[in-house]
Write a structure and sequence with these properties.
Length: 341
């Protein structure tokens, strides 16, 4: 079995590669990644020399590159993680999101049609459903919740999902889509809430909480997401969408306070800053379908997952110190400079 994993030098993709090489030692895993600012070849160092692993630096939008890779590898399964993923960057510069997230997905699926595969899997997001109100805690996103996006990022991901379903209906391409809630864990780029707050707190820098900090996200440990995708690609039904989430809703401010407590840093570091434009209020997944049809349940409780994550960032300082010392500084200044007012 040969599996092409796109975007495997990023956060979830790299965790998925480690998981697959461990769980399916007979599989060949081929990573295609453009190594954008979010991709880090050093993350894949532990598997780089493994016989069953190959890394290819390339763009999913590059038709020639993608077709050549399919000719060489004849993949059975393609799992597409490659994407521009940060909502704030999409608000600043939408076009690269449309290019990678929609056009890149189309190129990958054209290759699947041309060369034939057993399964194309699209790694999607719960953000395609828009948001839920804070005062209706019994409302959750199901697979039939209408698509109703807020940001250029979520709109590009929704466009990709619709295209994937169209390739199934029109061309009979064997596809599945998963839509997951917010992930946390090792190797997450420090533009996202948890690693950004961890690193700022460790450096005694202000912790920029958007708005009032009352927005709610449904947090899932990254390995639980990887397990769910492994189940969907092997046991999921063609043409189906599976929501992934662990009923672990938390307010942003409570996450940031927890980080202060764990790192023994004062809450006076918390600084309320200008809100994100179009900021989604609450995400909450109903995972009934993937549980009842495929038997998936999250295994890592948030208390344990956040401890593991904090320990990882403490023990792997060189991984993130290199990131935050580079062009990240310009990014931070651009994104946060005016926010602090
Ligand atoms: P990430 O930003 O950490 O990594 C993205 C990876 O894709 C990087 O390695 C980058 O180099 C690569 N990439 C970007 N453009 C590319 C291109 N044109 N060609 C090839 N490679 C390219 O992202 P992540 O947080 O690991 O998210 C992975 C996937 O999971 C995305 O599709 C995202 O929408 C989805 N998702 C993420 C979350 C989350 O909480 N992080 C939750 C649900 C779904
Ligand atoms: O729900 C799944 C999505 O989760 C994925 O599809 C996205 O790729 C991923 O980035 C994530 O999107 P969010 O916008 O929810 O994640 P982010 O970490 O950017 O922000 C989480 C919450 O924290 C959100 O309400 C905004 C807030 N926030 C974020 C940052 C970076 C702050 O208050 N301050 C910050 O500095």
């Amino acid at each position: 079995m040969t599996v092409i994993v796109t975007g495997g030098a990023g956060f979830i993709g790299s965790n998925f590669i480690f998981y697959m090489l461990k769980e399916h030692p007979s599989y060949r895993i081929v990573c295609l990644d453009k190594l954008t600012y979010a991709g880090n070849i050093k993350t894949l160092k532990p598997v780089m020399e493994q016989e069953k692993f190959r890394f290819v630096c390339g763009d999913i939008c590059g038709r020639e590159t993608v077709y050549r890779l399919f000719e060489e590898e004849k993949p059975d399964i393609v799992v597409n993680f490659a994407a521009e993923t940060h909502v704030d960057r999409s608000i600043d510069s939408p076009s690269v999101f449309l290019q990678t997230n929609i056009m890149g997905t189309a190129v990958l699926m054209d290759a699947c049609r041309k060369y034939g595969i057993q399964r194309y899997h699209q790694v999607g997001t719960d953000e395609v459903y828009g948001d839920l109100p804070l005062d209706k805690p019994n409302l959750f996103f199901t697979e039939t919740t209408p698509i109703h996006t807020s940001s250029p990022y979520s709109s590009s991901k929704a466009g990709a999902d619709l295209l994937v379903l169209a390739y199934h209906r029109t061309y009979g391409l064997p596809v599945t889509i998963s839509r997951c809630s917010n992930n946390y864990g090792p190797y997450q780029f420090p533009e996202k809430l948890i690693p950004l707050m961890l690193i700022n707190a460790l450096n005694d820098k202000p912790l920029p909480v958007y708005g009032e900090g009352i927005n709610v996200r449904d947090w899932l440990y990254v390995e639980d997401h990887c397990k769910a995708i492994d189940l969907v690609i092997h046991k999921g039904k063609d043409g189906e969408v599976y929501n992934i989430g662990g009923h672990n809703e938390m307010r942003n401010i409570d996450i940031v306070r927890l980080i202060c407590k764990e790192l023994k840093k004062p809450e006076s570091l918390i600084t309320y800053v200008k809100d994100r434009a179009g900021h989604d209020m609450r995400y909450a997944i109903d995972p009934t379908k993937i549980h009842s049809e495929l038997g998936w349940l999250p295994e890592t409780k948030f208390e344990n997952g956040i401890q593991k994550t904090i320990s990882w960032y403490l023990e792997n300082r060189s991984w993130w110190e290199e990131i935050v010392s580079g062009e990240y500084q310009e990014y931070y200044q651009k994104m946060y400079g005016s926010r602090f007012g």
